[in-house]
Structures are given as structure tokens and as C-alpha cells.
Sequence to fold (141 residues):
Amino acid sequence: MGRLIKTGSAGKDRVLLEKGIVIALRELVKQSDLDQNTYDLAAFIALSLQSIGETVDESVTAWEKRGYWIKADRYRMEWNWTAKMGEDLQKALLKEDWGSVANISAQVSQKLSKVIVSQKHRLGSQWIGAWEKLIRPNQGH
Fold:
């Protein structure tokens, strides 16, 4: 998987991950044969969703410290789907259940339908090597 850039805030990281997922979904739809790229794309989406899920608590901590409980709860409800779908996608991918992978990918696409990414983006191919990271999570990186 490409370099992971730590921008300094959970919100900025989440926005970059959202855009990366949208780009990967676009590429996944173009796949006609199952190859390494297909595995990398699906794995990147799963790992990115899980990463977004991990940023939710970090994002709401400051609001909770100030007593903005309703705002924090709304935010959690808005993003609670990411970790679950990321795990479900990972399980389907490891079982090579491509029907479930397609179904979950469609749901993710629907959830992120408002995310705008230019066709001429400069985010690169962040998914390269994601399959390796998914099946061997404790090596390197």
C-alpha cells in the first residue's frame, strides 16, 4: 500500500480516506477480470473503512470535553457504519465471496455518493499493496 500521510487531524485524514475509497470504487467497477489489482482495490476499501471507523472517537473527544453530547452522538451515528462495513468487506474478501464484495461496495458507494473527487485528482494509486497488508497486518508499515 502506498504511503500513509498523517495530516495531523482525524477529520483531514477521514476526508483523504473517503476520497481514496471513492477512487478505488471507480477503479473496482472497471475491473473485468479478477487479478491482483482487484484484490488490492477491495482490500484498500476495507482497510480505509476500518481506519475511518477508528477516527470517530478521536473526532468527538473534543466535543464531549466541552459538553456537546448531542453533536458527538450525531457524529457517531453518521459514521458508525464504516467500521462494520470495513470488517464485513474484509471477511467477504478473505472468503473470496465476490457477490458480497460487490454488494458491500455498492452500499459504500451509496454512503459516499456526496464525496466529490475530480477525474484529474493527484491522489495516486493508494491501493497498491493493500491486499498484502490485509492478509499480513503485522508486517512492516
Observations:
- The radius of gyration is 15 Å.
- The mean pLDDT is 84.
- The chain is about 70% helix and 0% strand.
- Residues 25 and 109 are 7 Å apart (CA to CA).
